[in-house]
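User: Hi! Is it possible to get a structure for several chains at once, not just one? Here's what I have:
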Amino acid sequence: AQSVTQPDIHITVSEGASLELRCNYSYGATPYLFWYVQSPGQGLQLLLKYFSGDTLVQGIKGFEAEFKRSQSSFNLRKPSVHWSDAAEYFCASRFTGGGNKLTFGTGTQLKVEL
Amino acid sequence: DAGVIQSPRHEVTEMGQEVTLRCKPISGHNSLFWYRQTMMRGLELLIYFNNNVPIDDSGMPEDRFSAKMPNASFSTLKIQPSEPRDSAVYFCASSFVSRGLRGPSYEQYFGPGTRLTVT
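Assistant: Yes, the chains can be modeled jointly so their relative placement is included. Here is the combined structure:
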């Protein structure tokens, strides 16, 4: 079955440190890829998306993600984390033949230490 | 842009009662999705509509759940009768599947959710 894997359930980083959240997808063909962020008590907000073209995509709030076909990965990065980045992050993909729906990973909870 | 609007934001009800959750998608969007989020099962897609027509309801847990989209600007998710295990946050999301110069886009925009507690 097509799936999106986020291997890290929890990550803790210090404020100002760099961040990388991992995401792998199971399907061989190039899907549509997304990262969302969910703050406590809120809905999911789109951070960035990849469809095709440049494999390094920029998003809001200083985040970026890089698509690596050879590794079936779409990792999210930020050079310097702020305390306000503490939230849950979801990777998602639309797979070929999947209609309009997205498949979400199980999420990574980010804690930022001051 | 008002974004996706959901009501109510919080609902507390007793087991056996009927619950109706409401969603107004972003104007012009042609797909609507209902999700449920719990600590145990994470984010689950319940059902989605394209152009007001249900396309995939394989995530609807059982016959107690039903969803309708009578027009492009309104959808409901109904639980009858409700049970304590239905307690969760229910999200509505919408998207506009456009075919731009770079191909279709499928990003979804989420509402703030309805926190349902069934006692």
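The interface with chain B takes residues 32, 34, 36, 42-46, 49, 51-53, 90, 94, 99-102, 104, 106-107 of chain A (CB under 8 Å). The mean pLDDT of chain A is 93.

User: Great, thank you!
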